[in-house]
Specification:
Layout lengths: L3 H17 L5 H8 L3 H13 L4 E4 L3 E4 L12 H15 L4 H16 L3 H12 L16 H9 L2 E8 L5 E14 L2 E8 L4 E6 L3 E10 L7 H13 L10 H6 L4
Antiparallel strand pairs: 1-2, 3-4, 3-7, 4-5, 5-6
Helix pairs in contact: 2-3, 4-5, 4-6
């Protein structure tokens, strides 16, 4: 019976993994749980026999049938603690939209914790302090809206103030986001400049989501940064301390 417990825990974890993404490959499952592909096939069959409607896409992976609802997620003490720590870290973030929406999500998560876990997470919350951004400055409020524009391939219009304090109106196609030195950076294809540019969110004066959509860009984020590295290495007057992320930031125009 003791031998069944690790497998039962793995089956539960695989079920959670299947719910977390639209498509999960057998290789993904095997790597995460450190088992063979053959074991993954066996575990998937077991879940199917137990009534879980798993959809198999030949040559691609597995997904849960759309509309299928599972019982509420149960958190371990360690997972609940990680949520508390993440909330503290995110509260120090400079984007207001991220802070407010994460706090809302965290409140919903805490509402389903067992009473004992609630008590422990409240104690932990009182004993944690993040000193980054101690003045609690909020310099942008566009992060979540931009995430939506990225995933929906939606053109947005921005009023942008460059680092040289030059104002401009842009129509851009949001591509990716990253954070460096406390600032969020948007990588987007600028229709005005006909090329990719990097925009600091704290320099965006106003933002409007349009009804226009664009075709997905045939480049990955890694390829974008590789292009930045090439440009940086080919520029002899660039300070040595300036890396690819800084180079991208300096494209804010």
């Amino acid at each position: 019976m003791a031998e069944d417990k690790p497998r039962l825990a793995r089956l539960t974890a695989i079920l959670t993994q299947l719910q977390s993404k639209q498509l999960v490959t057998a290789t993904d499952i095997a790597k995460k749980h450190q088992v063979s592909i053959r074991t993954v096939y066996r575990d998937i069959r077991t879940l199917e026999k137990s009534g879980i409607p798993i959809v198999t896409q030949e040559g691609r992976g597995y997904s849960i049938m759309e509309g299928f609802k599972l019982p509420p997620v149960m958190f371990t003490e360690e997972e609940a603690s990680a949520i508390v720590i993440a909330e503290k870290l995110i509260r120090a973030n400079k984007d207001r939209s991220l802070v407010e929406l994460y706090e809302s999500a965290a409140t919903k998560i805490r509402s389903i914790l067992k009473f004992g876990l609630k008590t422990k997470t409240e104690l932990l919350s009182d004993r944690l302090q993040v000193r980054d951004n101690s003045e609690n400055k909020k310099t942008s409020n566009h992060l979540i809206q931009l995430q939506s524009a990225i995933s929906n391939y939606q053109v947005i219009e921005i009023n942008y103030l460059s680092l040289e304090n030059q104002q401009s109106q842009r129509k851009i196609e949001p591509f990716a986001l990253y954070t460096t030195q406390g600032n969020w950076i948007l990588i987007a294809f600028c229709q005005l400049k006909n090329g990719f540019r990097a925009f600091r969110l704290d320099r965006i004066q106003s933002l409007l989501q349009t009804d226009s959509h664009f075709q997905p860009h045939k480049i990955t984020l890694e390829q974008y940064f590789e292009e930045c590295r090439k440009k940086w290495s080919a520029t002899p007057d660039t300070p040595l301390a300036q890396g690819p992320s800084t180079f991208a930031s300096n494209q804010n125009i």
